[in-house]
Amino acid sequence: MSIHRINLKGPWDYEWLDGPAVPASSDGRVTMPAEWNALFGPVAGRAVFRRRFHSPTNLEPDDRVWLVFDRVGGRGTVAVNGEVVGKLTSSDQSQRFDMAARLQPFNEAAVELEFDPATDANPGGLYAPVAIEIESSHEW
């Protein structure tokens, strides 16, 4: 079995959802990975991160396609094309979500993330690479 990895560095759109007021620059675009404090400062709240991407090409029917978060600070939901595929927890361990059945020619991953720097030991946000991993029985 081979694994092909496509890093989703950017651009990601992000938007502050609630919590204490943060600077106007807290809505915009960012390249991942990005720490919570760099985007919003040391405040608790919720934000949504969105990344558009094309479907990987040359997929075989038995290929598995995962959306992978190497490390996350905070908790929230992960959706692909508007359908929730899983829940994130604050962790320095990789978290993977199967998205093969939801892929379309053009896609959007959305992560709604809540973080409180006062209660979470991890750096906040999507502070490590986010990627698509394709598990395949054929060689790339």
Structure, described:
The protein has one domain: Galactose-binding domain-like (Jelly Rolls). It is 4% helix and 49% strand. The chain has one helix spanning 36-40; strands at 2-7, 12-18, 28-30, 34-35, 45-54, 64-69, 75-80, 83-88, 95-98, 106-115, 125-126, 130-136. It has a six-stranded antiparallel sheet with strand order 3-2-5-10-7-8, with no helix packed on it. Strands 1-12-6-9 form a four-stranded antiparallel sheet, with no helix packed on it. Strands 4-11 form a two-stranded antiparallel ribbon. It is elongated, with a radius of gyration of 15 Å.
Short description:
The chain is built from 1 helix and 12 strands, in the order ββββαββββββββ. The chain is mostly beta strands and 140 residues long.
Question: Which short descriptors sum up this protein?
Answer:
six-stranded antiparallel beta sheet, single chain, 140 residues, mainly beta, Jelly Rolls, 1 helix
